[in-house]
């Protein structure tokens, strides 16, 4: 006897959806991946962040789209959302399940080849490991800024990132070590627009730079972050104008460090800007100001 279409579809959904629901019950935010191990794209209403985007998991922002949008920010632990009607067609097409490590309080060190695995075994504290197609995931307790290519074959996935679920792994999860944090500080390749601190001429007259007062500079960066994350439309233009304003105020005295720039880039990426778009906007702003 031929089974009804709804029953066949339900059974087709079961493997990935069942895994997602099991993870969500353990407070791990999950999302489906399509072919190529990438998230599903934004729906027409959210395309190009027209909806305002979802800055982070705890404060969803102005977008209340019920569909699977905004990549890692779509990850959820709500079983009602995972099983909802708008998500059903997506589970039908899904090729894998991913999770948001930062939302689960975790950091994944993604080791993409044998050489990277050997380096980790010689350098990093032991923790839970999960085998991947070409290497391993090392999972630590704690969160940090995500970064790609911190060294050959090594990516860090934590806040504002996703990792493919490949099983629970083996070993005991240990605390995130400083050795991993230092990798992103040394070479935060996902957010740094230039190899070093912004280098520009000293103030005329050689006087002390007023921006070196921590409160003055931090207040300016805080305001810039807020301007970007509160943008409801024209995100590209807002990011560029904000970068331009920051460089106009602080770009000629050498005060800006990689950490300041990383904060601005992280705010822009939380609104859906890619690392390349951030770097291009920063370069264009510097060019306009003659820096």
Q: Care to describe what's here?
A:
The chain is α+β, with helices and mostly antiparallel strands. The chain is 38% helix and 14% strand. It is built from nine helices and ten strands. Strand 5 (128-131) and strand 6 (136-141) form a beta hairpin. The radius of gyration is 21 Å and the shape is globular. The termini are far apart.
Keywords, separated by commas or semicolons:
291 residues; alpha+beta; four-stranded antiparallel beta sheet; globular
Q: What order do the helices and strands come in, and which of them pair?
A:
Elements: H1 5-25, E1 30-34, E2 38-39, H2 79-82, H3 88-93, E3 96-99, E4 106-111, H4 114-123, E5 128-131, E6 136-141, E7 147-151, E8 154-157, E9 163-164, E10 174-175, H5 178-186, H6 214-229, H7 235-250, H8 258-270, H9 275-289
Parallel strand pairs: 6-10
Antiparallel strand pairs: 1-2, 1-3, 3-9, 4-6, 4-8, 5-6, 7-8
Helix pairs in contact: 6-7, 6-8, 7-9
